[in-house]
Amino acid sequence: MQRKPSYIKLHKEGIIKKRVKELRELLKNCHLCPHHCEVNRIKGETGICNSDSRLKIASYGPHYGEEAPLVGNKGSGTIFFSNCSLKCVYCQNYEISQKGIGNYVKPAELAEIMLNLQERGCHNINFVTPTHMVYGIIKAVDIAAEKGLEIPLVYNTGGYDSINTLKLLDGIIDIYMPDVKYASNKKAEKYSNAPNYYDIIKEVLKEMYNQVGDLKIENGIAKKGLLVRHLVLPADIAGTKEIINFLVNNISTNTYLNLMEQYYPSFQADNYPELNKRIDYRNYNELLKFAKEQGLRID
User: Fold this and answer.
1) Superfamily holding 7-298
2) Domain boundaries in the chain?
3) CA–CA distance from 229 to each of 111, 146, 180, 226 (Å)?
4) Which contiguous run of DSSP H or E holds residue 159?
5) What's the burial of 289, exposed, middle or buried (CB within 10 Å: 0-12/13-18/19+)?
6) CA–CA distance, 166 with 131 (Å, rounded to integer)
7) pLDDT greater than 60 at residue 137
8) Banded pLDDT at 10 (limits 50, 70, 90)
9) Within a 13 Å sphere around the CA of 142, how many CA atoms are in the beta-carbon half?
């Protein structure tokens, strides 16, 4: 018999409802992410993420451009949330993340979207940029679970997450998919307005791994675990080798890593000469070889 996601049991026990209340409390003096803006988002105030307490989504649907274990043959049920707690100057989805295009929805409407994606055969529900919207998302999960949602939940994040918030997701999220951006606090602050990013992401990765472990794949489809993304940037701005070494030495040699090569200058990258160019593909291939030599599972 196929194992069902643990959030179903947490829903039946009323635990998700309790977690939702705790997440709502964090919004009153917002500490959802490491920025700690301390604004009252319940009353409509906004911080760095430019979001109040309402859910706002840009688009949703089966997505076939994700990692193979997420996509399968029916697609990953992606839901793109508007705005972002990071301010990456080269963001390729800046109209969504920085300009905030999208529409407001209620948790019950988001729950119906999840159920619709499940009915369409999607292998999972993939929350893209969920950090600042996690209160409404988990409230919607509780509603959807009551109505029969039973596919894995993917937390697709830039990695600038609060450990306290992640602990409230323990047992609810099946697959954590952090995009580890930098091995340098200084560069993270310069290019993404994310102070102490590298210190934070190292603890985030440990917490995520402690919750879900290595990525478990059944019949080609991811069911639970940690899947790490990393976008290679020009001139080794991202510090790729250091990130690979951290995963090997501090997380797991069995970590599933997607080393992404699709960087291109976008948004405000033309203001930064070091970012206003494509990556060196010979260097990328060397990094790919290095990651494989370390034993990581490479997408």
Assistant:
1) Aldolase class I (3.20.20.70)
2) 7-298
3) 27, 32, 6, 10
4) none
5) exposed
6) 9
7) yes
8) very high
9) 20
DSSP symbols for 86-125: ---TT-TTHHHHTS---EEE-HHHHHHHHHHHHHTT-S-E
Q: Looking at the DSSP assignment, which residues form a beta bridge with residue 41?
A: none
Q: Please, what's the b/e burial string for 187-204 (b: 16 or more CB within 10 A of its CB; e: otherwise)?
A: bbeebbbbeebbebbbeb
- Give me 90's structure tokens: 């080269």
d(CA 117, CA 122): 6
Give pLDDT, residue 126.
98
End-to-end CA, the chain: 28
From residue 58, give the alpha-carbon distance in Å to each of 61, 100, 125. 11, 8, 15
Percent of the chain scoring above 90 in pLDDT = 98
Backbone angles phi, psi at 249, to 5 degrees: -90, -20
pLDDT tens by residue, 236-286: 999 999 999 999 999 999 999 999 999 999 999 999 999 999 999 999 999
Angle at 115 between CA 109 and CA 121, to 5 degrees: 145
Rounded distance between C-alpha atoms, residue 209 and residue 94, angstroms: 29
What does the block give as tokens for 203? 């603890």
Q: Contact at 8 Å (CB) between 39 and 47?
A: yes
pLDDT one-digit tens code per residue, 143-178: 999 999 999 999 999 999 999 999 999 999 999 999
205/155 Cα distance (integer angstroms): 13
Is the Cβ–Cβ distance between 183 and 200 less than 8 Å?
Answer: no
Q: Classify residue 174 by its DSSP letter.
A: S
CA–CA distance, 170 with 147 (Å, rounded to integer) = 21
The average pLDDT across 284-294 equals: 97
Rg (CA), the chain: 18
Q: What is the pTM of this model?
A: 0.97
